[in-house]
Amino acid sequence: MKTVSIREVAREAGVSVATVSNVLNRPEIVASRTRNRVQAAIEALGYVPNLAARQLSNGSSTAVGIVLFDVRNPFLAGVARGAEDFLYGVGQTAVLCNTDVDADREQRYLDMLAQQRAQGVLVTPAALTGEWLDGLRDRGLRAVLFHNSTDYPHICSVAVDDVGGGELAATHLLARGHRHIACVTGPSDMRQSIDRLEGCHRAVARAGLPADSVEVVEVGAFTLDQGRRAGERILTSATSATAVFCANDLLALGVMQVVTRAGLRVPEDLAVVGYDDIDAAATAGVPLTTVHVDGHELGRAAARLLVDEVTNPNEHRHRRLLFSPRLVERASS
Hints:
Blueprint: H1 6-13, H2 17-25, H3 32-45, H4 51-58, E1 63-68, H5 74-89, E2 93-98, H6 103-115, E3 120-123, H7 130-138, E4 142-146, E5 156-160, H8 162-175, E6 181-185, H9 191-206, E7 214-218, H10 224-236, E8 243-246, H11 249-261, E9 271-276, H12 279-283, E10 289-292, H13 295-311, E11 320-323, E12 326-328
Parallel strand pairs: 1-2, 1-3, 3-4, 4-5, 5-11, 6-7, 6-8, 8-9, 9-10
Antiparallel strand pairs: 10-12
Helix pairs in contact: 1-2, 1-3, 5-13, 8-9, 10-11
């Protein structure tokens, strides 16, 4: 199919190329009769504007990067969908990027978004530093973090009270009479792992139990396969744990698969609690008790913050939104 140029549209409409450009970019300054003539020529010729060229002339694009550490994770997929729904509603384009918690990959994506003059970026940071974020801002790329940390006080963030969520889970298990809890965490350098484990320890301490009432089982990622590996470790260890709190639902579902295949009953032989409340939690063979977080609303809130940052760049409010989770009790505990 032949590509129609802006010059052909101008010739068809009997106007200058500059007038066609104004109709595309600043239609309010063009007389209605001339604007209608140009629009008719565009439709007759099937002209498609060169978006990249328009972005360069305007100094920015409608793109917003959503940079997540694992787009396969159902909770993060919900976050991305919430952000995308909001961005679509205000005429922005979402660009989804997956980092696999790889610092180099993360920085390459952020470089690419800056080079393409994106409006901004929503990011679960893998290895960002304050200096790096300042550099993004200097290059015109606004950022909102999915990150529960005060490390970046000058950057807007949206996060969950994961310490409180960990406390909810452990308090629930303690109330059921459990005194030894295995806590399956993700990577030890990730904020989610650190905070959810801290919440578990706080609940145990408040109950007057020793710190070793919590057995930490660290795994390399928040995945179903890593949950299965954690389950195997729990079954083959000399643990006295009667309950397991997992740092997300995929880990919990993996643990339950291994436990039930070994002939044990959930929750009679081993109670299990997860975190996130993904769709699969409620439909599992033994419905999973979990800490509920609304990922869709989290994503919408982050996108709303970013759009506000872009729209009002000089107000410097740098807001930090912290969502409170809640416990959803089901059959697994």
